[in-house]
Every structure is written in C-alpha cells, then in structure tokens.
Prior knowledge:
This protein is an alpha/beta fold and 324 residues long. The protein has a single domain (8-302), classed as Purple Acid Phosphatase, chain A, domain 2, CATH 3.60.21.
Amino acid sequence: MLNKNFSIALLLLGIAAGVSVGPASANPGSGAFSFGLWGDMPYKKAGDDAKLPAVLQSINQSDIAFSIYDGDIKDGSSKCTDDVYTDALKMFDSLVKPVVYVPGDNEWTDCHRLNNGGYDTLERLSHMRKVMFPTTDSLGQTRMPLQRQGKLGEKYVENMRFQHGGVLFVGINMPGSNNNLVLNPKECTAKSARKAAQCDAANAEYLERDSANVEWMKSAFELAAKDKASGVVLVVQGDPGFDWPETEDADESALPDFLGYRNFMTALTAQTEKFAARCCLCMATRTFSKSTNRSIAQPNCFPTSPACRPLAAHRCTGSASRWM
C-alpha cells in the first residue's frame, strides 16, 4: 500500500436514544454509541513513534465502546521482522477498551518486496495468524468476545464478527496490493524476492481465501437478517475499487489493480441489495479527488450499495498526534 498519513475516524452510530459506554460485550442492548476506527501506525519512517503515545492516550481517554484497527502495523518499505508483530500486540494491549485487529497488506502481502526483507508472503501470513490472534477474543485490557471463522493459529482465524448495540460488525482479511493476486510474471518479480512458484502459490492462496471471505460475508448478512440487526459494518483494509464520480470518463473499479476484489464486491453488492437494514463498508482507502488531482489516504466508511442505507458516519482525517 502507498505510504499514508495516519488518520482516525470516529464513527457515531445514531441507532437509538441513549449512549452505551464502558466495556463492550458480545451484544449489549441497543442504543447510540461510538467506536474508533484507526490504522496505519506506527510508520517509523514518518516519525510516528514519537506521536504514538499521544494517540493511544487520546483513545484511552475517549468514551468509545471499542475500536477497530484497520490494518498496516508498519509502513510499506520496512522489514517484516518478527518484532513488528509483537510490538503491535503491545500497542493494542496498552488500550483500556477492546480493540479488534483487521490485517493489512504491509504486514504480509507486501513482505516479498526487497525493501521489506524479501520474505515469503505465505510464511508471513501464517506467522501473523499464529502471533496476532492469541485468543478468540479481542485485544486490549478489556476483552470482548468475538466469533471467528477459523481456529486459533489456522486459516481465516483473522476473520471475525461481533454484535454491539444491535449492529453486526464484521472484519475480513482483504488487504491492499490487489488482495494478494499476482497478475503477471513481471509483477511477480519486480523489486521482489519472489520466484514464479511463490507467485503461483500466492494466486492459489488468493482464490481459496477469497472464497472463504465471500462465505463469511454471506453468513454475516444471514445472521444479521435473522437477528434483525439495525445494521452491518464490514471492515477490510484494501481499497476494493469504486467508480468515482469525480472521474466521469473512467471506471476505476475495472482497473487491473482491483481485479482481486471484483468477485467479493459482486457478492457483497448482491447481499446488500436484499438487506433491509443499514450497512457500510470501512477500509483504509485511497480516494482520488479530481479537483485537486491527488490521492488522499484515510480510513473511510461508505454505503455498500445504493440500495443499502448507510449508517450515520462522520468521516475525518488528521495527523498521528491527535484524535478526531
């Protein structure tokens, strides 16, 4: 993923009167509540180490029920050494409220890059699953029970869901860098330690995980419908590609860089079109502004289809030194 300025989105979910604060449970009663969405930290090359304590302190002093970390526990041009993962666990466990971790591309998909140490991508994925998910519960000093798709240390343990205030939250391992899909031999070896066999293995992994992700997403909407949930919040790290209205002559979603998301997004659109309640998709996305002709990176939440009414959300960006 491109190097990004850190940003936090504090989403205020106006579901009913009242405010739910304090430790989050598996499915506390309905009522208005807030949660934090953050990620892309610490980027050491951006000087985030000095800013991190202020961010963590601000989160701890807030009245959010829980937070969700939307991937990238390091920057995209530093090495994927084992201490990166253990340091991230220490960061999460410094938070008083529950925090749920959703993987990003910088901690596994991109580790094949020479400037990342030339690791085997699938070995780093396996390592991440064993280290970053030591419990079926959330991380943080206050734990929150989660339902996971896989067993501890095994495939898809990172995919999770839980209910809070009548809303179903779903996290899925769908990272940047085209969801680990390798398009051609040139891309396979460019600035990379990968060999052809490793890229073939990466594509096989992509197909298997994409299928599992779709099934987890579908079952989440089925559960939400059965429980009459007020909404669904789906959190992924990768930008799955959208046809942005600011670029009228181009359909960005059809670009090759987004091919690894098309199957999932087609299935997601079908689910949201028949889902009667509210829903939104949150990602550590890279949006394009036609007026400024530049890319803007930030965690955002969007309605998943025109037929699906969005949850009330406040989108904001800021530096790593402050909470917004």
